[in-house]
Amino acid sequence: MTPVHSTDQPVVAVLVAAGSGSRLGAAVPKALVELAGVPLVRLSAEALVAGGVQQVVVTIPGGMDAPFEQALAGLRAPLRIVAGGSTRQESVRLGLKALNASDDAVVLVHDAARALVPPALVASVVEAIADGAAAAVPVLPVTDSIRQLTASGSVVVDRSALRAVQTPQAARLGALRDAHEHARVRGLEVTDDAAVCELVGLDVTLVPGHSDAMKVTTPADLVVATAILEERRRP
Ligand SMILES: Nc1ccn([C@@H]2O[C@H](COP(=O)(O)OP(=O)(O)OP(=O)(O)O)[C@@H](O)[C@H]2O)c(=O)n1
Ligand SMILES: C[C@](O)(CO)[C@H](O)COP(=O)(O)O
User: Fold this and answer.
1) What number does the ligand 1 atom closest to the CA of 17 have?
2) Is residue 105 part of a domain?
3) Domain count of the chain?
4) Which ligand is nearest to the CA of 113?
5) What is the ipTM of this complex?
6) Residue 90, CB half-sphere, CA atoms under 13 Å: how many?
7) Where is this site: Transition state stabilizer (predicted)?
8) Less CB within 10 Å around the terminal CB: N or C of the chain?
9) How big is the chain by its Cα radius of gyration, in Å?
10) pLDDT tens digits, one per residue of 178-235
11) Contact between residue 140 and residue 163 where contact means Cβ atoms under 8 Å apart
12) Domain holding 102: CATH number?
């Protein structure tokens, strides 16, 4: 399949898959859980490659090499599997270290749990970096009403000013490695790579996200994701 974008930049990715999936509660690590017979990590890796990624490092739980190698066998891009860390942030840092590419390569960080990310969304964060953004993340408007807890109760929040953040998140490889090292040295913990970039003063550019890039977190998410995949496969 031809990548859905074109750029002169090398495009590489860290696919974080080292989580246990405690909220899903499956018998295997979440990234090995199957949607319509295909492991989440395999679907995610294929979406990255279809979106133009040329090299993938996958972070996995320690001691799980064999099942992950089997799940990822035959991927149409160079692939390396490395042990992840105890947090997502640490897994990303270890994955970035294992990539073999120049500092100016475009790097994507993607959750294996967002297995149905459309290749066009992958391409759109790459293009944002190629067009000059320091960091790029996909976002969606928030659909629930939101309240913020206060000392005396709670207050309503204007949701029109809020966005939910997805992956893949993109930057230049050298800059993202430096930002993660900065966070590690200072003991700073944040929830995503855009926030790591902001710790070192990089501007974050927002691109439109997609509902199919939902994160499989709970058993109900698995039902929704299965339905999306089956709908895609319907002739
Ligand atoms: N130490 C960790 C924790 C998470 N992840 C990855 O980061 C992504 C987002 O994390 P999440 O979906 O919250 O996964 P888990 O941490 O496994 O979920 P839970 O909190 O339910 O255990 C997942 O693809 C997960 O595999 C990782 O590589 N290393
Ligand atoms: C990176 C992320 O998916 C963006 O929404 C999210 O922050 C991961 O959070 P989690 O705590 O690992 O579920």
Assistant:
1) 26
2) yes
3) 1
4) 1
5) 0.98
6) 11
7) 23, 30
8) C
9) 17
10) 999 999 999 999 999 999 999 999 999 999 999 999 999 999 999 999 999 999 999 9
11) yes
12) 3.90.550.10
